[in-house]
Amino acid sequence: MADVSAASSPSPFVAGVAPITETDAQVAAALQHAELAPLLPSLAYLTGDMSLLRDDLRPDPLMLNLPFSGFTEEQQAEIRSLAVAALSRYRDGGCVPAAAPGDAQLLQMLEFTVGGAGMADYLPLLEEELAYKGEDRRAPQWRAGSLAPTTTLSAVIIGAGMSGILAGHRLQQAGVPFTILDKNDDVGGTWYEAAYPGCRVDNPNHNYSYSFAQRHDWPFHYSSQHVLHDYFGQCADAFDVRRHVQFGCTVRQSVWSDDDQTWTVTYDDEAGAQRTITANIVISAVGQLNRPKFPTEIEGFGTFSGETMHSAQWRPDLSLAGKRVVCIGTGASALQFLPHVAAVAADLVVTQRTAPWLAPTPDYHDAVPDGLQWLYGHVPSYSEFNRFSIFWRMGDGALESVRVDPSWESDGSSVNMISEFGRQLLVEYFNGEFGDRPDLLAKVVPHYPVGAKRMVRDNGVWARTLKQPNVHLVTDAIARITATGIEMADGTVHEADVLLYGTGYQASKFLTPMQVTGQGGVDLHEQWAGDARAYLGVSIPRSRTSSACTGRTPTS
After folding, report:
1. Centroid of chain to Cα 319
2. 8 A C-beta contact, residue 133 and residue 17
3. CATH architecture designation of domain 307-364+410-501
4. pLDDT tens-digit readout, 450-476
5. Burial of 251 by CB count in 10 Å (0-12 exposed, 13-18 middle, 19+ buried)?
6. Measuring CA to CA, how many Å separate 1 from each of 58, 271, 274, 353?
């Protein structure tokens, strides 16, 4: 374990916000691609002009996830017109930002962004996001050597994915020596392992990235696997974390010593030799979506004599061209790879147990337009307000839609008034996509509340896939897997050359298959008894183990 220096690293991707030299017409052209909900608040922050926050242009919180944030064409035009005028004044005044607003004004901007009130508790988060480009307000403000100069402290991080890289970066800033053990031969975690066609994130790039390592040149609104793998690799290099990673290492167990107050981590190295390493701290950054879940409960599992493949273990060398393919599962990963399978397979049978709700996302596969990238790079605070807007509408802002109202009367398809409103909007989307195929429409519309399980982003590709003549959606129960295919509960047999599993991951089996023995010889898995938990998601009672937040991973 090498000691490290404490320098805080600026973003390796953002050099700073450039001055505006473009004409009004060029600015107006760029604004055609703007995310509208955060636009006027960011300009009020930039210019100090609070008159931009007009009540008639305040977004409706129920409409934030719709295209153009639900604004009418007239509202869109007025917002862009106000923005052109504000940016022209800013340009002509020498691109000098106004003084930072006080809390009352900042709260007004914040509440305007989300179209609601009562946002005072979120001011500290927005203030962090609004830090000057490259400033990292979450960097540790302490050094281990200063706090405890006579104490030797070291850490082992298990996993070199997005959480492991972050943990290493923070430890390095704090001057804590560390070693990262990873089973792969490169950093990136799931974004290195996931190789199935169509793999991409379902979280907008601005949100699915480190707050202190933002970039303006994302090629897509929603990054594909190779883009995110490159991003995390570049971060590992920029933050000098890669040199601390030992690749090809599979951790078997971690055992705490009450006497020595240290962990002994046992692992197999890349040559297969068993080794140990000791440390005061163990941080688990192994993620959740890296061990495939197979439908072992289906009779005959393992008896299929043809080729089989799980989305988590995709083999690019296995050709599906001209093959009869059966896919079990319609989770998020399946909805990404099945369009590619349908394009080459002779026949594709898709078995669905539970239909997913589709989140309409017209730009899901689209490149980020130059105009939007220009705005990120030339309008101070616009990127940060947009990042907060994404966080809100995908996170805390959606909580009320899934909060059960005990007095709400429903057939089980909604849990409150907002939930029912969202359900009706999405049903209309399904009607538009599948209305010409009532046989499919009856199968694809879910009957459970929106938000009860993971939604899947869609830009129309799912309907186009299922409507192809070589694709067959089957919703009957699978009775058994046979040597030549699958047999349904009604006796129908589907013969196959290849059996695909789109059945997800063992997401709830944290730290499996590692053995973790904590304070007093307590076995962590026995302590959890199938219900993994940790204080603030970080510290596990009696185990002295830290568990890094894993963040979002590829769809599964």
Report:
1. 29
2. yes
3. 3-Layer(bba) Sandwich (3.50)
4. 999 999 999 999 999 999 999 999 999
5. buried
6. 53, 20, 18, 49
